[in-house]
Amino acid sequence: MNNLLTLPVMIPLGFSLLALLWPRRATPVGILALLATLLASAWLTWRVSGNGPMLLALGGWEPGLGIALYADALSSTLLLMSSVVALAAGIYSTGYFRAPGDRARFWPLWLLMMTALHALFLSGDLFNLYVTLELLGLSAVALAALGGKRKAVEAALRYLILGLLGSLLFLAGVTLTYAGYGTLDLMKLRDLLAPEPVAWIALALMISGLLLKTALFPLHFWLPPAHANAPAPVSAVLSALVVKAAFYLLLRFWLEIFEDVVTAFAAWLLGILGAMAVLWGSWRALRAVRLKLLAAYSTVAQLGYLFLFFPLLAALPAGAARDTALGALILMALTHAFAKSALFLATGVIQQKAGHDRIEDLGGAARALPVTVFTLALAGVALIGLPPSGAFLAKWQLFSAAIATGQWLWVPVIATGSLLAAAYVFRILGYAFAPAEGVTYRIADGREELPALILAILATLLLGFGSVQLWEFVTPGALAAGEAP
Amino acid sequence: MSFNSWLPLLIVMSSLVPGLVIFLLREESHALRTLLNLFGAIIKLLLVGLLIWGVYHAEVIETRWTLAPGLDLVLHADALSVLFVTLSTLLWLLTTIYAIGYLENAPHRSRFFGFFSLCVTATVGLALAGNLFTFVIFYEMLTLATYPLVAHKGSPEALRGARIYLAYTLSGGILLLIGTIWLRNIAGPLDFAQGGILGSIEGLDPVVLGIIFLLLITGLGVKAALFPLHGWLPQAMVAPAPVSALLHAVAVVKAGAFGIVRVVYDVYGIEFAASLGLLTPLAVAAGFTIVYGSLRALSQDHLKKRLAWSTVSQVSYIALGAAILGPLATIGGVVHLVHQGLMKITLFFAAGNYAETLGIHKVSEMNGVGRRMPGTTLAFTIGALGMIGLPPVAGFISKWYLGLGAVEAGIAAWILPVLIASSLLNAAYFLPILYRAWFLRADDSLALAGHRERTVTPPALLWPPLITASLALAAGLFAAAPYSPLEWAQLIAEREYRQ
Is the peptide bond between A195 and the residue preceding it cis, with omega within 30 degrees of 0? Predict the structure, then answer.
């Protein structure tokens, strides 16, 4: 039964080859692959929620020698998230890429990226993580360069170099760990690691590599040009999923593998950088001229919120309060993934219909593209963190944890970040609702507008009203031991 | 699941669902949109009838839904929420009728009525909120739903007003949020309870409670337009008349005042709040706002602006009632929640009629309008007299009880002068309007077409102000009758002080 674990990886890989060999039918092959991957991920998540974590040693080799796949609540949740976003963005791409040549180039890479992403979520040892991280980076760069415009290629090249630098740092950390402890298996490392120089240096190297890839301030500089110049469906996935993959590794290393090695000071450092990211990213988003650049800077800010959780998790004693904060962290990441991909897809619709995405010339958009503007508004609600979005509940817990641990510093940061987010979201809406002719009437078809709308609804209504299951799932015991309702 | 655990949800849904459907309608489907609007409003009214019956018979009516560990979305009906729900539902029905007439041929009607319904949904939701968490959710949703209404005209002026509105309310919302979370952290789930919940919890630091009180009241005071947080309200009057009517009478301003009442009575508990010394600063702020708003109203020539400043002043009566310890003041404050709503909506309806049928926006243009629009002017007169506090209009009852409450609490020395000054100022800015309207002849130089003849006001515009004016009159005349707002306020006061 545990062979199920291979499906979310093997399906996109197999179909990727098929799309490569059969370019004329690349689109149906791709959509079919994404649907099948979604089903497999959903099934896997359902199994994990019923029976607990699953482990599979491929080919019967013992972990440490062969490839080990491992799925728990966190990884299966992210797997499901990435399958949903990839499917929505994939459906949107059929309207975005009209030329058969573009489609034939897009689909194999897209599915390859899904393969890398899912393999990363499911990998149980450090070397495989390095391989998947590298594969993910390369396929993402190739996708970002798909537009073929000079700016996109330049940004992609920079993205490539920094991505490689990040991977190299990570690899150095992996090598050092192997030299020090003689194993790469995460489960074993967890027991072996002790707070000593080898572990510290290895952790520092891996974390710096991952921070570069997850674009934490001040290492964020490569992100806005790369995300803002890529084709819209690619930007959506870069912002929603690819940076999250690096963050996922960081979180896992921090909380599980290197749990005994990390220090409170390091957690504070991450928190401070996160706070700077929130403020700086939101501010730059507010000043952005183009919608896509705004969305990209907003990603920098939203990633910052995720890092604010580190000093809080370090200060909270194990128990219900810490579990709740951890659930909030994951909810924040999920909400951002759905909301940001919705924002990028909606931006893509506007860019294609209007021929530009300059914010000040959005006048008339509300009349010409009401569904898309509604999507922008819904996604905006989630990015600000207003009810009924999942981010509201997550921010509530973030505030709550900051107050409970006495880390008051974060309270004004979150408040200011939220107000700045409100300012940049309503700046878009203000222009979009203004009666002008910047965006004139065009017929948009459903496959372009609906995927974004569905993602935005997931971010707001589903995660807002239905996330208690998520909490129960990712933090077992949180509710049983929690406060009385 | 019994019907009682669905009823509050159904009441919220009865405007949410039509609102969402209306967004999808095409601009031309006028009849269907009207049908949906009225259908939702009438269903809501019927459901509220059931709610009143249930609360009167002390049934437990509650919808509960867990959103996150320890955070429940609770919709709960008690006497206070019923008062506010009834007011909003009734006035929503009338305002909808009015808005259908008002926006006869205006563009973007689907968008307008969609957000209009969302606005009422949020108001009803926060009226029924059973804990502070739920209240905050609907409080923020109200901000989001009203922003497009204020910006509706799309003119630079409207967009500017809407931006200011948003800046104020979102900042206030964050303070309210922080205060609520902090209080939640130290005092557990904040389910509203008559008599308050904090008084019975041991070991709370009074200083922290004071800071939290300040955060909460500041957050709520933005919407309630408490000085110095009132800056957005006169700017937001650029909205279309039905929106202003709803904003000033039921939705936004009232939401803030209602929140203050909730926090003082059902979270802190009035006796506990008084023992912490939190009421006097609130009373001073409210008293100052009452006089200041009236003073500013005096100098406005623009009719809607004058009414807006009058709202700043009048809504603070509710906060004042909440800030005076004693059941009589409670009655005065709570009943003013209803009375001010009825009177102010009448005034805004009438102002909209003047603007719509005669093109009159300024007080100085109002000479002789009484003869030309007698029905509207009659309604306006009743509303204005009520604001001044003349018997038998409802406003008198509120002031009477507030005054008695001040005497009972022993702070009559400065409250009574405030009330008297406010009445005099109200008279000073309303009576000249009435004098112009009824006794002066229309100004020839204005050269409006047919400016002396009687003008026919469409029934959809005429009847809502007449009905609300009669309700304001009836609430004063039959204040002692069963189910009157006063009797209901007495019921609330009785339950708040029973412990």
Answer: no
